[in-house]
Amino acid sequence: IVGGEVSYLIYLPPGYARDERRRFPVVYWLHGGGGSQRDCWKFLAEVKKANADGSCPEMIIVGVNGVAGSIYSDSKDGKLPFESVIIKELIPHIDQAYRTVADRSGRALEGFSMGGFGVYHLGFKFPEAFGVLTGLGPALLEFDSGAGNVEGALRNGPYEGDREYFKINDPFYLAE
Question: What is the pTM assigned to this prediction?
Answer without folding.
Answer: 0.91
